[in-house]
Design goal:
2 copies of one chain form a homodimer. By secondary structure, the first copy, chain A, is mainly α. Chain A is 66% helix and 0% strand. Chain B binds a DNA duplex through helix 3.
Chain lengths: 236, 236
Amino acid sequence: MSQTKDPGAERPPMRDLLVAAAFDLFTEHGYENTTIDDIVRLAGVGRRSFFRYFPSKEDVVFPDHERALADMVGYLDQDHPGQDAVTVACGAARVVMRMYAENPAFSVRRYALTRKVPALKAYEISVVWRYERALAGYLERRFAALPDGGARAHAVAAGVVAAHNYGLRSWLRSGGSGEVAASVDPALDLVRRTWRDPEDTVVLITRADTPLWQVVQRVETALRAPDQDRPGPARD
Amino acid sequence: MSQTKDPGAERPPMRDLLVAAAFDLFTEHGYENTTIDDIVRLAGVGRRSFFRYFPSKEDVVFPDHERALADMVGYLDQDHPGQDAVTVACGAARVVMRMYAENPAFSVRRYALTRKVPALKAYEISVVWRYERALAGYLERRFAALPDGGARAHAVAAGVVAAHNYGLRSWLRSGGSGEVAASVDPALDLVRRTWRDPEDTVVLITRADTPLWQVVQRVETALRAPDQDRPGPARD
DNA sequence: CCGGCGGTGGCACTCGGTGTGCATAATGAG
DNA sequence: CTCATTATGCACACCGAGTGCCACCGCCGG
């Protein structure tokens, strides 16, 4: 950690230095009352160097979102056999979730900051929007065959992102204790269930006087073995 | 229209003057290349007055969103008998849609601007987020009785906003010709159908050998007369 | 005629962000 | 070992957004 000589992680320590200095000052004097000069003075570097590592003052608060977005796009570019589009979108949201889980203490500090500084909240929203746009693009490709594919793609993407953020916020409010997934997955599952492809719906028709245990049995077998003996849903 | 003497609309003309001047300069020289001094020089007013009417340079591009948000909140505060929560949320989105429809030419010009200026896009997103938050707050109250009410409220709000924006964008890309609702309503309907309260689902069970025309008839009567002889969904 | 009073303009200042030129290593060729 | 090249950080100057302060002007009642 003091040398950062590990191959593959060639980030100069100055980046982390600036983030640490900035967060200390932000939490002590507030975001607005802290100038770039204060940060670079505490970090012991030149003012110009700050903008070499962060394009703006807001970016120092979200130092890893760029990587997370790239990870999510990479996840969407893989193929996920046997998973419908909505499930893949939820998986992509979980990729971002893991980024938050990597450093709970930092995530909680940042959450406290974004909650009280409108400018940071606005910046965070624009970052989240990029996730949503990536999801919507993926879903639009997957839903290309459907007549309402465009609207569906955007509505699903927005729902997935909103559910993810809802669960994430509740985890952050708890102070980052426990598993993130325990908060995020239920919300994500709700979205996945309600937006599941209509073609995946099981319609079971029986005589009205069929014994209940037989109905249950047939429902169970139908739900357990999906996508086996019928053409799958449209995959662009 | 030339005098704006109508009581109730006491906006001083300087506001509209600044908006007109700003848009002319933005579309001609670009947003970034236009300074506040350029705007106030063209409008013939003092620089200080600009910030009296608009808190920031971005706000001059969205002069009516504050009013639209207030209108939407007002709509949500009314009570809408016989409409489920998701339908009311879609109605609230249509309130915002009408704001865009009030001045199609202006909306189209603004759309061209926000598409190519990242700063304006980011600002627009933060504005849209306030609509979404208002919707989510309303839906959270309506869904308070449901165990997954919170996640559901946020997912629905996000879906409604995304669908509205999807339809709106397609209308804006067409140059603002035709009815906005023709683009927005189908997308909104998709969200409303998929998120409709589970209690509103009609389950019809018949003998397998029931004549088709009888089945159709019973389905129709069930769909035509909703919420009549059963307790409605939880309304806090 | 006079003294508040609301709206406006002018001025100076802070601060975020950018372009430029210079100094200081680190690297590689001879 | 020395020199040239490159990269990296730094100091300085500059621009423009946004703010605080005060002077000004027209309008009102007294």
